[in-house]
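User: tokens in, sequence out, please.
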């Protein structure tokens, strides 16, 4: 299953319409609401997480989803260079091996934090 979340109703409606037009609506679940709520009940295991939304949510979402990540799951955080200050706690957490991840910042565009879940 592919799962996404969007807090803004207009963007949510656009995403659903785009998926329907592409013939993919039955393959993707886009939930409307705050990601901390809409992702609280997610199917396990998770293989890939892409975070490119509210930067203050990256760290709480990484912690929320970590128990459901499959070993060697990939977690990507976008805009690492653009929001260097607000994403510093997220980057430090992901790069600390005690938290179960191996992580590096990729110098692509605005910066991607590329993390692999190793488990705790």
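Assistant: Sequence out:
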């Amino acid at each position: 299953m592919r799962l996404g979340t969007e807090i803004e109703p207009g963007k949510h409606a656009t995403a659903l319409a785009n998926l329907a037009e592409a013939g993919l609506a039955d393959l993707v679940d886009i939930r409307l609401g705050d990601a901390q709520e809409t992702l609280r009940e997610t199917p396990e295991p998770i293989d890939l997480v892409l975070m490119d939304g509210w930067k203050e949510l990256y760290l709480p979402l990484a912690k929320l989803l970590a128990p459901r990540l499959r070993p060697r799951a990939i977690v990507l955080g976008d805009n690492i260079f653009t929001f260097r200050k607000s994403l510093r706690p997220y980057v430090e957490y992901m790069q600390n091996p005690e938290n179960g991840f191996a992580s590096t910042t990729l110098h692509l565009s605005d910066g991607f934090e590329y993390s692999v879940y190793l488990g705790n």
